[in-house]
Design brief:
Blueprint lengths: L3 E4 L2 E4 L5 E6 L3 E2 L9 E2 L2 H13 L2 E6 L26 H14 L2 E6 L9 H5 L3 H13 L12 E7 L6 H17 L3 E5 L5 H10 L7 E3 L10 H7 L3 E4 L7 H16 L6 E3 L20 H11 L4 H17 L1
Parallel strand pairs: 3-6, 6-7, 7-8, 8-9, 9-10, 10-11, 11-12
Antiparallel strand pairs: 1-2, 4-5
Helix pairs in contact: 1-2, 4-5, 5-6
């Protein structure tokens, strides 16, 4: 068991992680799919938005933003773009470090490769899973190139665009599993809308990855009956991590999912987060920002019967166990 995790400001002891948002993005470029509001690149604005979380007692944010998600999203406009196949944009990493220092937050940085259609297919065609894994291991053990040794603390977010695993996505996931075996780092996946998290688990575990070190993201966007419980039953974490709207129907759905998992005995397998990735999700643009989980959503959970201690367990003990065990 490891007792520390690497962050943008250096290693942090497990007991110092405190309250954690385990699936977020600070700077991100989703304009390939969301041209209207898919770019977050204002360092001052991000710093101000995160101050809401720290004001609520928040301590740690996991930033799962790989290089494919950051072209043009680093405040250092003069920086050269990352080379093909890079797992993280150095300018983005340094911007995250500045935000972490300004807010006092521990920010855990992800490494690896995102999903189609963002993946560089030509690069993946020319690199095997072992070569991809070597670069992920380097980020976790030596640091991101061009950042002065700032290390990744988690692998992710890596995953799938649709209901199947494409060839490039398969190579990316195999590399993630092999990097986990070499380092012990946790893996956090993208598995939205379809129950593709189950074949992701099959693939990752076939490569020797430990389900206790795997979080399947966006389970709250999948409507397949019993999906979340099947993931938890296999020992992986269930990401209820797109809590970025206060629409009653959406909130009720997520509240029921959390309570159903708790009642089924899987309180230790739940992760709660916002997945802030659009301008419209920031408080300045009318969204809930990085504070909704610990305000409106917490209130709804407690009103529905979850205990305050149970909520604290989900938002402190669970992500710390994922990151440091």
């Amino acid at each position: 068991m490891t007792n520390t995790v690497s962050t943008a400001r250096g290693p942090v002891a497990r007991q110092e992680l405190g309250t954690v948002l385990p699936h977020e993005h600070l700077f991100i470029n989703l304009m390939r799919e969301r041209r209207g509001d898919g770019l977050i690149a204002d360092e001052a604005a991000v710093t101000e938005e995160l101050s809401v979380f720290t004001g609520l007692g928040g301590t740690t944010v996991v930033d799962l933003t790989t290089a494919e998600l950051t072209p043009g999203a680093a405040p250092d406009a003069g920086a050269a773009p990352p080379p093909p196949g890079a797992s993280r944009d150095p300018a983005n990493v340094l911007a995250v470090q500045r935000v972490a220092e300004a807010t006092g937050l521990h920010v855990v940085l992800g490494t690896g490769h995102y999903r189609d259609p963002f993946l560089d297919r030509d690069w993946f065609d020319r690199h095997g899973a072992d070569a991809v894994a070597e670069e992920i291991v380097r980020d976790l053990t030596e640091g991101f190139p061009g950042t002065g040794g700032i290390r990744a603390g988690i692998i992710g977010e890596v995953g799938c665009d649709k209901w199947y695993i494409s060839a490039a996505e398969e190579r990316s996931l195999r590399a993630a599993a092999r990097a986990q075996q070499a380092t012990g780092a946790a893996i956090h996946t993208h598995a939205a809308r379809w129950p593709v998290g189950l074949p992701q688990l099959d693939l990752l575990t076939s490569e020797g990855a430990d389900p206790a070190h795997i979080a399947i993201g966006h389970c709250d966007t999948v409507t397949a009956p019993g999906y979340a419980e099947r993931i938890a039953r296999r020992g992986a974490y269930v990401g209820v991590d797109t809590i970025n709207t206060d629409h009653p129907r959406e909130v009720d759905h997520r509240v029921r999912m959390v309570l159903d998992l708790v009642r089924a005995g899987y309180i230790d397998n739940i992760l709660l987060s916002h997945d802030v990735c659009l301008l419209s999700q920031l408080r300045a643009h009318g969204g809930g920002g990085y504070g909704f989980v610990h305000t409106g959503f917490r209130e709804r959970l407690l009103a529905a019967g979850l205990g305050a201690g149970e909520f604290d367990h989900i938002t402190t003990a669970n992500p710390a166990r994922l990151l440091c065990s």
